[in-house]
Design goal:
Arc Repressor Mutant, subunit A; HTH_AraC; transcription; 9-stranded antiparallel β-sheet; AraC family transcriptional regulator; Multidrug-efflux Transporter 1 Regulator Bmrr, Chain A; Homeodomain-like_sf
Length: 282
């Protein structure tokens, strides 16, 4: 898997000055476009589109400093329709505009070419099972929140507090399916960088109709990889997400599939037991 992913990285370099076709990259990597984007983001720490943008601006920066071509020619070559658009993107990455960088020979940022290697760390195994599940519905309430990598997510904490304990108890009483209990579902995530927006839904799997003050989220038939963990809260749960994408997927034949991920958590003081459901395809 990593060898083919590196072949896709090499193809990005070949196509930087033209169009980078993500569907082609996915075929080279032997996976789906959706899984390639999720895998790349988890491994690299930035979205694939952002990596391509930063590589283009790195190449453009070298041409700006060389002084051989006009700034408009460089902007056009790297996909910008005007000097203004190029200058905004250039400044966002390098902290200085292209004209100033050329005149003052400023030090600029560089996005290195990424390659991926397998690193073996420790001997910890990851407990999981594969579950085939028909379509079902989740009843609860949803919102849009920013991504937080470490520590509590204030937006989620405030949202759940806003639902209130009585409503959460009524919600939990509706549950009659697997996974049981209150669930946190996340989907439609824009990226992996801190602050990226995603949909968050608090609810239960149920066959019952939603009360007037709640809504229904339909989840299609799917295959699920189910992971379990236990440890300090919330670090253990956040590390489980990271390890699934950076360790488990590269070591197995499954790929992540589109759809919501589901997390069930039991908190006891500073310790939590968690079960994470991720839709997959083989």
């Amino acid at each position: 898997m990593l060898e083919r992913l590196n072949e896709a990285m090499a193809r990005i370099e070949e196509d930087l000055a033209t169009e980078v076709d993500v569907k082609l990259l996915a075929r080279i990597a032997g996976t789906s476009e959706y899984h390639l984007r999720r895998m790349f983001s988890a491994l690299a720490g930035i979205p694939l589109s952002e990596y391509v943008r930063r590589r283009r601006l790195t190449r453009a920066a070298a041409e700006v400093l060389s002084g051989q071509d006009s700034l408009l020619d460089i902007a056009t070559r790297w996909g910008y329709g005007s000097n203004e658009a190029f200058a905004r993107a250039f400044r966002a990455m390098h902290g200085v505009g292209p004209q100033e960088a050329r005149a003052a020979r400023k030090a600029l940022q560089s996005q290195q070419i990424l390659t991926f290697k397998l690193v073996v760390e420790g001997s910890t195994s990851m407990e999981y099972r594969i579950v085939e599940k028909d379509a079902f519905q989740v009843v609860g309430r949803g919102t849009r929140v920013p991504l937080v990598h470490l520590g509590m997510n204030p937006a989620i904490v405030d949202f759940v507090k806003g639902i209130g304990r009585p409503a959460l108890d009524r919600m939990e009483a509706l549950g009659d399916g697997e996974p049981g209990g209150l669930l946190a579902l996340t989907y439609n995530q824009e990226g992996v960088e801190e602050g990226a927006q995603l949909d968050y839904f608090q609810g239960v799997v149920t066959s019952r109709e939603a009360p007037e003050d709640m809504e229904t989220l339909a989840v299609p038939k799917n295959t699920w990889a189910v992971f379990t963990t236990e440890g300090p809260y919330p670090e253990t749960i956040q590390h489980m997400w990271r390890d699934v994408y950076t360790q488990w997927f590269p070591s197995n034949s499954y790929q992540s599939a589109e759809g919501p991920s589901m997390l069930r958590t039991e908190i006891d003081g500073e310790t939590a037991k968690a079960e994470l459901w991720i839709p997959v395809t083989s």
